[in-house]
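Late entry, written up from scratch paper. The run itself happened at the end of the previous shift, but nothing got recorded in the book at the time, so transcribing now.
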Amino acid sequence: MKNNIRIISGIIILVMSCIGGFSQDSQSPEQEKIDQIINKLWTLRYGDWPSLNKDLSEVGDLIIEPLIKKLRDEDMSGWSQYRIEWSQRRIAWALGTVRTERAINLLIEMVQDRKLHDYGRYEAAMALRRIKAKKAVEPLIRVLEDKESNPPPRYAAAYALGDIKSEKAVPSLIKALSEDDVQIRRGAVYGLGHIGSDKAVEGLIQALKDKDGHVRQTTYPYLVRLLPDRKTEFLIMALRDEDWRTREDSVKAQVETGEPIVEHIIPLLKDDDNVIRWEAARILGRIQPERAVGVLVEAIKDSDWKVRNEAVVALVRINSGKAVEPLIWMLENKNSYVREEAAWILGEMRSEAAVDSLAQTLKDKDTGWMAAMALGKIRSEKTVKPLIRALKSKDTKKRRAVAWALEKIPSDKAVKSLIAALKDTDEEVRMWAAEALKRIGTPKALKAVEKYKN
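Output as recorded:
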């Protein structure tokens, strides 16, 4: 009896395996490929979907029915909103890759269907954007104007209309500039900027008054491109914008413009707004025009420290001999900060012409230390004697700078004074004196260093 049961069970298993095998064998290669694509689509991460581009293009309309079935899946009612969103987004993306007439029609249905998830509709609009489907213009306009819909599908519609470049959409896009949602307004600017007609430009000029800095930031580049004759005007307007990102974009654009913009930037160094003066100095420092040297030297006297710093950086970058004489004059300025900055720039420029004036400035109680640093950078042998005298200063900061400078200009003449400096009350002065003696390297200098170490 047990043997009979085993035989019958074996026959059942054999029959079932044959049926299964027949069922699998009977599935067409196309169906197998479709199943594979859908399985991959539902397991891949968003950024990996493009790996299916080739497969989706090959199967074309054959995948639409399975996608529709997924879209209308009865079990979806029990899904989380997150799962519904990504399921619908996958479907819309796949249809946008298939790109057939039937796929486009289904995308148009999806983008208008308020029952779908906001981001399912968003993805449908973005798919139509990629396809640049002309027949989708009017449905997309309806979505953009639909105040009952949430922002995602509406601003996606604005982007799509911009890439389709339909003049029909311009009035609706201009109207969208008044929407409360900033994403919709930014989408409208994108749409108008890409359509680029005269009417669209009027809308973009209107967008310059938007209360949101992001919207204004997005608008300026379109106007610069579409109205090249007014490029400078728009860039200067952007430089005055209260939004820092807009100003930063303007600075980059003006630097890229180069020499032609300089004549418009130079007057801004005397603007009433300290931020504008600062931005102007930054731009000139990056373009590095020699004709700006005079105004940049004057800007060292600015009341705002940020402007002064940026002017200093600009002069160092330009490194023009034209700046040396005015900077030497500034070593006698009443403002100690101005004298200090002038000395620093002359040092950075390695200006031999300034050596005598900097040596005189060593006596300045406020700026002497910076003059010593500058002389150390210039490394002129003729400055050794003035530096030796300055090594006896009561100002610790100045003695440190002098010892550092003498290390940069190793000279036998300084040995005696540097050996004396090894007994200085300040540790940093002693350290630089020892380093200077090591660089000089004479037996007397090295013996003093060894003694100092012990």
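The mean pLDDT is 88.
(Scratch paper discarded after transcription.)
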